[in-house]
Amino acid sequence: MVTTIRLRGRSRFQPRTSAHSGARSAARALRYELITMKVVKPKSQVSSWAPFAHISFVVLWTATVISNVGTWMHDVASGWLMTSLSPSPLMVALVQAATTLPVFLFALPAGAIADLVDRRRLLIVVMAILAISTLLLGMLVLFEQISAWTLLAFTFISGAGAAFVAPAWQAIVPQLVPRDALQPAVTLNSVGINISRAIGPALAGIIIVSAGIAWPYLLNALSFVVVIVALLWWRPPPKKVSHLAAERFWTAMGAGLRYARSSGPLRSTLIRAVAFFLFASAYWSLLPLIARQELGGGPELYGIMLGAVGLGAVGGALLLQKLKGHLGADALVATGTVGTALVLIVFALFKQSAVAIVASFVAGASWIAVLSSLNVSAQVALPDWVRARGLSIFITVFFGAMTLGSILWGQAASMLGISITLQMAAAGALIGAFISWPAKLQLGMDLDLSPSSHWPEPIVSGEIEPDRGPVLVTVEYRIDLKSRAVFITLMNELKTMRKRNGAYSWGLFEDVAEPGRYLEYFTEDSWVGHLRHHERVSVSDRDIQKRVLALHVGDSAPLVTHFLAPEPNVAPVSAPVQSEQIG
Q1: Which of 142, 265, 287, 461 shows the smallest number of beta carbons within 10 Å?
Q2: Which residues contact 483 (CB under 8 A, 6 or more apart)?
Q3: Nearest to 421 by CA among 258, 290, 250
Q4: Are the C-beta atoms of 78 and 129 separated by less than 8 Å?
Q5: ∠ at Cα 112 (468, 122), nearest 5°?
Q6: Which of 268, 344, 240, 356 is nearest to 307 (CA)?
Q7: Nearest in space to 278 (alpha carbons), one of 464, 83, 167, 412
Q8: Are 307 and 343 in contact, with CB atoms under 8 Å apart?
Q9: What sign has the CA pseudo-torsion 254, 255, 260, 264?
Q10: CA max distance for the chain
Q11: 401 near 274, Cβ under 8 Å?
Q12: pLDDT tens-digit profile of 501-555?
């Protein structure tokens, strides 16, 4: 065990006219600050199976595995059915695009809705709609009333349902397990998807050959009922109830976008996601054609290849915790990207089924390494109040890149051929990994984003309408001239914090007549928006504020003033509201 202690002196002496002020400054000049005192010892690693100790996680995980088996059967049937209805590479790739495009279009509003309403009820309603639409599709296929464009329309509806399910479903994961089990829970969710990928496609191939292509759809409709029953059983823990009125839909969407724009950890995750998914989409969208045209196989081979992808993902997930401990999230994603590029090259150059199946196994292991790391990176970057919206932005970027890639690679395959297209995608994946490397992952892992509740209620002279605004908040600081550089650096961190939690503009100014006297301002759209800012300040935000306040050398705390835009045609009747605490 190694104990490290590092001391740094910090002079804050500034001549004052008051003897009391001078004594205070002299005392500050002699004060040393304990910067770090930490015990470096091996961290106890949470087991990859720890989430299975929680019954709610087990029940919902099992239900989703069953449902995902049905979904993979559905997807395999759709890809194969399109090769019969319209075998052009572009139309086959459009099946993948029709699945991912609605998620790109609707995920952000779906995330806002999931943060505003009961997530459990939302999931039950959407699952019921998906069960009905999938049953109808199965009946159309059964009675041979399906066309290529009808198939794409139902695929779009299915994708729209997935858009509303994904943010809400991912946002409830932290309600199922404690924080220290979040990463293995996310990984196990991916394992569940890939177990279903290993079972579903192979099962679909058997069912299509033995019973007909309509039955994967009919069985998928039944699988949604399993999830509905599990959700009806589950009772989520009670949420902290806010005394403020619920956010409006458009306001909630804007808050989610503003948080994503101001959150460095989430921005880095999104950059890495685009760099990978845009190119990895090539083998997902072209896999039916690789199996049918490049390898000369049937639905059985296509199902086996998808099953190998699922098995590879399961195998990769079992090693993921250990690999992450050795490599770290960034190197793990880079390794997965290289593995994906190699798979694309193998698909392009080798025409043997056995080689393609082995490559599919590697593709699954590479996919889980990247997807799980990115998902965890997004989860830990988000507090609960914006979790579904932040995850919906991640999902939007994910599916947007997949949609764009599917269309791009489908068109390229039509013009250049499948082999050349796959080689181009492999080269792009490697270049994207190199360019996006500076964007680091899981930067939010050590942040405590739980509410700190340390801002007091603002003092007001009377009732204020919640929607009245905009609101201007100013904070006046007095800083020793020797500490200005440190102060400005910390204020830039504070700026990011203010904007994440609701401010849409921010500024910092220094008094030209009195150097060291600074005025910070930030503006928010309404009074209720500012009160929500009070509720959203996190423990990590509080730590930044403490570091800023430690540099303040005034006789009292920084002066905070709240201003409201005057109401139309009403003369102001009171002085600006003042508070002695930062808020």
Answers
A1: 461
A2: 10, 12, 551
A3: 290
A4: no
A5: 125
A6: 356
A7: 412
A8: no
A9: positive
A10: 94
A11: yes
A12: 889 899 999 999 999 999 999 999 989 888 888 888 888 889 999 999 999 997 8
Q: Where are the beta strands (DSSP E) in 256-413?
A: none
DSSP lists the bridge partners of residue 436 as none
Structure tokens at 65: 């595995």
* 193 band by pLDDT with thresholds 50, 70 and 90: confident
Whole-number Å distance between alpha carbons of 148 and 95: 9
Picking from 4-13, 205-214, 236-245, which range would have the lowest pLDDT averaged per residue? Answer: 4-13
- Buried/exposed code over 220-251 (b: 16+ C-beta within 10 A; e: otherwise): bbebbbbbbebbeebeeeeeeeeeeeebeeeb
* CA atoms of 303 and 353, how far apart (whole Å): 12
Collect all residues with Cβ–Cβ distance below 8 Å to 311 and sequence separation of at least 6: 194, 198, 361, 364
Q: Check: CB of residue 523 under 8 Å from CB of residue 472.
A: yes
| Cβ-Cβ contacts under 8 Å for 307 (sequence gap 6 or more) | 197, 198, 199, 201, 202
Tokens of 25: 């400054």
Per the structure block, which two tokens stand in for 444? Answer: 């939010």
User: Of 531, 373, 553, whose CA–CA distance to 467 is shortest?
Assistant: 531
- Angstrom distances, CA of residue 229 to CA of 39, 127, 128, 265: 48, 10, 11, 36
Mean pLDDT for all residues in the chain: 82
CA distance 465 to 258: 24
Q: In 158-278, which ranges are E strands?
A: none
Q: DSSP 3-state assignment of 160? A: helix
DSSP secondary structure of 309-323: HHHHHHHHHHHHHHH
**pLDDT at residue 46 is higher than 70:** no
Q: Which helix (H) or strand (E) holds 121?
A: helix 119-142
Q: Which helix (H) or strand (E) segment is 550 a member of?
A: none
